[in-house]
Amino acid sequence: MLDQLRGDPKALGRAAQSKRSKQLVARTAEADRVVKSICPYCAVGCGQKIYVKDGAITQIEGDPASPVSRGRLCPKGSASKQLVTSSTRVTKVRYRRPYGTEWEDLDLDTAMDMITDRVLATRKQYWQWEVDGRRVRRTMGIASLGGATLDNEENYLMKKLYTAMGAIQIENQARI
Fold it and tell me: What's the rounded Cα separation, in Å, for the pair 26 and 21?
């Protein structure tokens, strides 16, 4: 009460602080670096600031510079730190063979080789040189549907990649 009378009438400064609260430091104050990202949950594409200390994520907050969300996050976005720091997060490639009943762990190189083999086999199997006498040079066995959280640069690179593979069914969820 005296602090309010001494120049803090709205109790927003000294009058509102306890001895303990005066010593508190924001979780973001000690970060080594701040990485800008996009929230992974939905197609809105809200901006996030990810605070990192000693290689570990310490906090994730909305990015005020984001024209999409202007620093705001929904409850899922606000809790996205749990997505990367949860003890139940899957951090290995999990694979279940056709007709299999059990999952097995694969190393990343093996999984990438399997994906490459399947893409090349699909491209070869469904390759079309001509359709109705017209040269088309395409594959109808590969398609891409990108998400609205992809930025222009990512969409550009995906379009280039899939076009180079001969795919013509390349779409983005934001246009649908």
Answer: 11
